[in-house]
Protein 1
Amino acid sequence: MNKTVNQKAWFLVLPVLILVGFSAVIPLMTVVNYSVQDTFGNNVFFWAGLDWFRDMLESERMWNALGRQLVFSSIILAIEVPLGIFVALNMPKKGFWASFCLVLMSLPLLIPWNVVGTIWQIFGRVDIGLLGYVLAKLGVNYNYTQNVIDAWATVIIMDVWHWTSLVALLAYAGLQSIPDAYYQAAKIDQASRWKVFRFIELPKMAGVLMIAILLRFMDSFMIYTEPFVVTGGGPGNATTFLSIDLVKMALGQFDLGPAAAFSLMYFLVILLISWVFYTVMTNLDKRDGV
Amino acid sequence: MAKITLDNLAHSYLKQPKSDDDWALKELNHDWADGEAYALLGSSGCGKSTLLNIISGLLRPSRGRILFDGRDVTDAPTAERNIAQVFQFPVVYDTMTVGENLAFPLKNRGADPKYIAERVNSIAAMIGMEDQLRRKARGLTADAKQKISLGRGMVREDVNALLFDEPLTVIDPHMKWELRTQLKQLHHDFGHTMIYVTHDQTEALTFADKVVVMYDGRVVQIGTPQELFERPAHTFVGFFIGSPGMNLFDAQVSGATATVQGVAVPLGDSYAPVAGQVQIGVRPEFVRLHAGGEGLPARILRVEDVGRHKIVRLDVGGTAANAILDEGTPVPAGADRVSFDTEAINVYADEWRVAPGTAQGRAA
């Protein structure tokens, strides 16, 4: 086939290029700019090369934050994915209650992050919060501002409360797309409930589950507002995740150079992991689509 | 293997069915004899699949009982009934290999691995997929997937009955013949009770010993292909079976004569007085065309040559009708009359066949 060559067509792409330039490329380049320079104030900058990157890679603080971040993301994925599937499996398939459940499940997703944080911050307080007060009355020594375990538990339960719905809704959509004949055939074949899940429901949900995992991973890896509102990263540095640490460094200490190097590496890690997910997902699709 | 009895069976998808129309399956009494091959024939939405799902236990009937060899299984789950069923659209377990798919029903029943391997191999040979046993079922064509579904239906030898719900819809014509022949062979070899749902009359007539014709939630006739052809019990059977279907003419019947459009048509038998909307039915195979002479005035609209025979489309006094002529027989020149083979005329009152000589009633 002959393609018409018309260089003017580039003008059609121009608006997008400009938009992306201003919204992504230029801000990113300013970060790159900061990451290779040092300053003693008065807007005077010196070339620092890759020193900041080297510093950051040797900084125990960053490795600790990264470690906490990975632990946090792993825990919430390990809870939210199975729990979401479990909820989806037990939701009514149709009728009034199906709609009711869907609305109920969507509610947490609609609440802004800092409001979620505030809700749980108050909910967990020992003096006035329902959860904290009840636990104290029951004799449980619970205090998320003092105790590391309590702080982690609060942040994790908060995230599970906020985001399990997303996994459940996606899994539910996957389940709804399975034709009745599959379940009927499974009955005829005398497949157990577990086998129905393992050989029918899980394979049919695989695609949406990958998306759910990717979304939840990226979101949890970048989490900032909720733990910041609830624990402020404490007690000590116990819940200081990457974003919180980054903000502390960039805005609290105004260490622009290290913070810029830090955010670039942060960005690359997320990019790398998302790329791996993307590759796995497209390969799954290829297997499906023959 | 078992005799399956339907006892006053009826089903409605509504909680409180009111009118007759609310019943997807109207009251039904029938024995499916052990080891026979039945075809369940009817147009879409006439209750065929409903009936099948009730027999296999996927659906609980609103009314009546279902018995296997005299044992009431109305409330028994599918597993207990030991039935194999193949559905219209292919169901395969994507993550398993073809072989694992075929072995699945046997494995779930805890069969001996050696026996499983043996069965899987013979079934694979039957559906022509021996060389693909190790391939993943994901990504196979609809054809191949449906063959696997069929294979899974046939892999158990001890089933009470084998139910097929339009299983060959998605299979291409060449393979259709082959698989149908193999199903017949299977029936011949093992003598399972088989019920084969279809809306394709050729499929029904070639597969089954007995054809059960359903119409609007009701079984209108059960008979051999020959009975359905010669003595359709209901005008629907006459219309649905045969290509083209039976010709119907409004008529008055008294004794051994029917009067159609003012012309006397002799009947093969004498009839008691018939009330209601009376019609006579004649299959196109028994319609004779000639120029002048006895018979009903007719006008030839067109002639379709379909190879083995010719179909002549006719206008008989405002009623559309068809005649079939053998390949070698020319359409008579100037033909303007039709007459019917006397023995082949059936009389219907309010759509149901009237048996000759008897008082009016539903004749089987």
Note: The longest strand of chain B covers residues 252-260.
Protein 2
Amino acid sequence: MFDFFFNLPVIVQGLIKGLAVICVIFPIAGVCSMAERKVAAWIQDRPGPNRAIVPWIAWIPFVGTFLQRLGLFHVMADGGKMLFKEDSLPGHVNKFYFIAAPILAMIPALTTVTVVPFGAYLSATGEVMPLALAPLDVGMLAVFAVASLGVYSLILAGWASNSKYPFLGSVRASAQLISYELSMTLSVIPVFLWINAPGREATLGFARAVEFQSQPGLWGGAWFGFLMPVSAFIFLVALFAETNRTPFDTIESEADLVGSFHTEYGAFKWGLFFVAEYSHMIVGSAVFVLLFFGGWNPLPWVPLATLVNWLGHFLPCAHAPLFVGVLSIAIFLLKTLFMIFFFMWVRWTVPRFRYDQVMKLGWQKLLPLSIANLLFYAVAIAFIQK
Amino acid sequence: MAVLTLERKPLTFAERTYLPQIFGGLKTTFAHLVRKKQTLEYPEHRPAIPPGYRGVPTLVMDPNGREKCVSCQLCEFVCPPKAIRITPGEISPDAPNSHVEKAPQAFEIDMLRCIYCGLCQEVCPEEAIFLQNQFSMSGYTRAEMVHDKARLYELGGTLPDKHLKWDHKKAAAAHGNAH
């Protein structure tokens, strides 16, 4: 099977890998919308959606009931509804851009996935090889560049909708995303300063960041989240703002802007915005995990290779690339999903900031903090790597 | 009245960062996440009805199966939204409870008008009408929402009766000392 795969033309291999990743991202985005409702319900002391069930699954004892209680089939019901309901096109909109906007929202959301490594396997010599669709050397730069294109779809949607609330929402979106992009970028520079130690080939890729967090020793094994808590904090706050999550979701604050840029959207086009938003969240969480929470390393000071060697005592197949790959992807996905849970958890904890508070926090608090943080680590790293 | 002047302390640095508050909030929400759910899953689980609850008005029978209503029409007169319509009727002389003399020929409560005030229950001298525990009342047509006598007795059932007033009266009459 492996030989057959590796004998295929490179383009076909790439297509298969890309489809495989999309086949994971899309259901996760769908399940996230369900998880959002479930977490919301649990935090509000409700059981949440738990009625929809497919008859022949209801016949399975225990498992069927469990899946029903989990609300898993509401995802399909919601998705099916969104597919089949009338896709209305208001008369006052600019039709071409109105339709183009949700499609444009999907492109950056799915493009950023390609450069994010999501697992690793051990090569024959015991080296940790990252798994990614496109393991670019400029990984972080590519994510920043492409992810910020996402705001264009919001601006386009707000403008093409030709009504005031979407327009206001998209203006807010552009201002907010620009404001927080700055602190976000500045907050990750210390990480890349540190991992680009003198004498090594320069890189902005994620693989090196994870490799750096899997070194032996007290300092090497510590995740960047512990070494640079301020960087991690700024990145996390900026990530909340960039993905329009509470407390920074002034962009789609339904109280004052109805539904913001997707006021005029419905059915599948609205669903595309939704999936794009969740994909941004997934990629953002993945980047956060890679940079600050050890990527596919199971625990701080316990890198993946150590775990695999330890498992090798019990399982003969522990060193097989397939096993290590699946294990690392599982660890990484678990961490990413925890981050997404954290997003939801925060959503029901912190109330939405006012728009002026968002701007004030971004420009007057986070930006100076991130600059000070950068200067501190630049000096510290210069001393460490002298 | 003494005026208490509260000193408003300036916020500490930790408070101004807003972070301890967020962590406290996260702790609170997480406690709720794992806590017992507070809502009922309605059609399967019903709430416990407290005593004295005023649900759908019903007509009741006494433990001997006699309909208690004597069609005095007090409830009809007291009913604020005029939801009750009673057609009084005679009890045939050869019936076992002929000494009661009167019973409703028809008894209708229009549940689209009823305001569940409970005045009918309060005013009834025979303890024949009760607002019982049923709280959900729905139908597809207006006609369905007008409860006739059969439906009212079906909803009401039999309630215990401490007095059995008419039986005592009959027994007293048989001993020749009717009042």
Note: Chain B touches chain A at residues 22, 25-26, 28-30, 32-39, 41 (CB under 8 Å).
